[in-house]
Write a structure and sequence with these properties.
The chain contains 10 helices and 10 strands. It is an alpha/beta fold. The protein has a single domain, classed as P-loop containing nucleotide triphosphate hydrolases (Rossmann fold). The strands form 2 sheets. Strands 6-7-8-3-9-10 form a 6-stranded mixed β-sheet, with helices on both faces. Strands 2-1-4-5 form a 4-stranded antiparallel β-sheet, covered by helices on one side. The radius of gyration is 19 Å and the shape is globular. The chain binds adenosine-5'-triphosphate. The site of adenosine-5'-triphosphate has 12 residues, from strand 2 and helix 1.
Length: 264
């Protein structure tokens, strides 16, 4: 399904600001895998997501989705395979357009069709049925401007737009981090439901260790550009936050130093 092989990325190579962001990353996902990713600040989590989405190109290594080598394919050409939700609720939707127009754009972007924003009756029904899954009553506000929605509602809409065309890979980049606790909980619950319903292959970066333990069937921990720990389905359900802290200490020989990682 998703194969990252030998991915390396160095920023500002050969300068005093040189930074090895990814150091020989190897990660294979089977269809339907839901992998949560934790790691300290600057561990390389976002850079890895950017390699998959095509926002960045690796110096070495390859990115494969569904058996196709996409390593050099630009981001806009991969969009059909990938759904992504960012931390910022404002990032995934267009505020001056209506809910329906936003959905129409997402629909046409992810379905290999030409850019066509027109909405017929059948499409509108599909949008309404999809919105009902959010339980936010947005299905009755199709002509409301998205800029008028709350942060939580916008993030729920972004999540729906990233998932309703069933992408090959769903990338969630700290997508609950900017929300207050109750909204974060709502989006976490929706994530679980939408991913499970369509059996989406998913990668989710989070600083919330409990969330990383609660969601998904696999977990990876990154540090200094490397994947330092992989936990499979069999072990994940019994794992606790102290276990993760202990694992880090065993591997790195030092205490985990990320206050944000302890939140939640
Ligand atoms: N465009 C860039 N130019 C230079 N350095 C970069 C760039 N993007 C990332 N880096 C550096 O690469 C390293 C990995 O960054 P990345 O954003 O992937 O980490 P992260 O694990 O997502 O961190 P955080 O949890 O703080 O968001 C960091 O040291 C970062 O400063």
């Amino acid at each position: 399904m998703l194969k990252l092989d030998g991915i390396n990325k160095v920023f500002n190579e050969g300068t005093p600001d040189e930074k090895i962001a990814l150091d020989n990353i190897n990660l294979h996902l089977a269809p339907g895998d839901f992998v949560t990713i934790i790691g300290s600040n600057g561990a390389g989590k976002s850079t890895m997501m950017n390699m998959i989405s095509g926002a960045l190109t690796p110096d070495f290594g390859s990115v494969e989705i569904n058996g196709n080598n996409l390593t050099r394919l630009p981001e806009y050409k991969r969009a059909v395979h990938i759904g992504r939700v960012f931390q910022d609720p404002m990032a995934g939707t267009a505020p001056t357009m209506t809910i329906e127009e936003n959905l129409a754009i997402a629909y046409s972007r992810n379905t290999k069709r030409s850019l066509r924003f027109g909405v017929d009756k059948k499409r509108r029904e599909f949008f309404k049925t999809s919105l009902e899954k959010l339980h936010l009553n947005l299905e009755n506000r199709l002509s409301a401007k998205v800029g008028l929605l709350s942060g939580g509602e916008r993030q729920a809409l972004s999540l729906l737009m990233a998932t309703f065309t069933k992408p090959s890979i769903l990338l969630l980049d700290e997508h609950t981090a900017a929300l207050d606790p109750s909204r974060a909980e709502l989006i976490t619950k929706l994530t679980k439901e939408l991913v499970e319903e369509s059996q989406l292959t998913t990668l989710m970066v989070t600083h919330n260790m409990q969330q990383a333990l609660d969601l998904g069937n696999r977990l990876i921990m990154m540090d200094k550009g490397q994947i330092i720990l992989e936990v499979g389905e069999d072990r994940k359900q019994d794992l606790t936050i102290p276990d993760l802290m202990h694992e880090f200490e065993q591997i790195r020989g030092e205490k985990m130093n990320s206050d944000r990682a302890l939140l939640g």
